[in-house]
Design goal:
This protein has about 300 residues and is mainly beta. It has one helix and 27 strands. The protein has a single domain, classed as Beta-galactosidase, Chain A, domain 5 (Distorted Sandwich), CATH 2.70.98.10. The chain is globular and about 55 Å long.
Length: about 300
């Protein structure tokens, strides 16, 4: 009997000299290359996704303190899977088998129904449509309440991006020229739970103008995003003398988390930068910030994407 890949069935999208691999497990994004050069710091087919690599974060992104939240007159208790900090982290769909429907050589639709369960007694359908084209990868995500009662929902995604220098080598976080068009960041406690908001002006966390990351450690949620005329906010990572990669997001995504990987193992630390589109920040099930409450049969959707450029 042939062994199954930890991330399940793989669907490869191909357009020109770009390729993207989507996985059955979690409906996630495992690999993205252009001209053979990596756009993502992904993972091998023989290993499971680590630290959220390319995963979809549903029905909440980031963390819920103590895994506990009030909703509909009841206090709900989720499993605490970030044991060291005592949080429920990154949702409930990351390790489930999603349905993959190929829509063409460069498109696939991943879908999953999250059934009502202890801690989240709501039935919600999720879908992510991935399309690869001349302008890069576009991801359309939707959530639909399939149950008979209102349901709290947040959405997020967790790609780790790499940039390639003029010498063809990938560039570490320190040497990336970063642009984050955000006026505000969230402050957090020692459990990574937001405690308030702070303007970035005059701070090391201000990347409204492109500059090197340097030694700054980022695990930072930004908001008050400045948007281009098309309504999209764009976070750009540039390599000195090389190419760049931009993560863009429409108005659905009011927050973006930027993570330089300082808490990862020695081989992964500051090797890449995660840029995470979020509809709500950490602990939104308690704070209500950015949280969407879907009535029965109601949906919420948003589009984000990755646009790499070569030197």
């Amino acid at each position: 009997m042939e062994a199954l890949a930890p991330s399940g069935r793989q669907v490869e999208l191909v357009h020109a000299d770009s390729s993207v691999t989507i996985t059955e497990v979690g409906g996630g994004l495992r690999e993205y290359t252009i001209g053979g050069a990596p756009v993502l710091d992904g993972y091998d087919v023989a290993t499971m996704a680590s630290r959220g690599r390319g995963q979809l974060l549903l029905p909440w992104p980031n963390r819920i303190a103590d895994g506990r939240y009030p909703f509909g007159g009841t206090t709900h208790q989720l499993p605490v899977n970030e044991v060291a900090l005592g949080n429920a982290s990154h949702g409930l769909t990351r390790w489930s088998a999603w349905e993959l429907e190929r829509l063409g050589p460069a498109a696939v639709r991943a879908s999953f129904i999250l059934r009502a369960q202890s801690g989240y007694p709501f039935t919600v359908g999720f879908a992510a449509e991935y399309r690869l084209a001349d302008d890069g990868l576009t991801v359309t995500m939707t959530a639909t309440n399939l149950g008979s009662q209102p349901a709290p929902v947040g959405m997020g995604a967790h790609p780790y991006l790499t940039t390639v220098g003029a010498d063809g080598a990938t560039v570490r976080a320190d040497d990336v020229e970063l642009t984050v068009p955000a006026a505000t960041r969230l402050e957090t406690d020692d459990r990574s739970i937001p405690t308030g908001a702070r303007a970035v002006a005059g701070e090391p966390f201000d990347f409204r103008r492109p500059r090197l990351v340097g030694s700054l450690a980022l695990d930072t949620c930004y908001t008050d995003l400045d948007r281009d005329p098309d309504g999209r906010a764009r976070v750009r990572l540039g390599a000195p003398g090389g190419g760049s990669v931009t993560v863009w997001m429409d108005e659905t995504w009011r927050y973006v988390q930027v993570f330089t990987g300082d808490t990862l193992g020695p081989q992964e630390r500051r090797r890449s930068i995660a840029v995470e589109p979020l509809t709500c920040p950490a602990n939104a099930f308690n704070s209500g910030d950015g949280l969407r409450v879907l009535e029965p049969a109601a949906s919420v959707g948003g589009i984000w994407g990755i646009h790499p450029t070569r030197a």
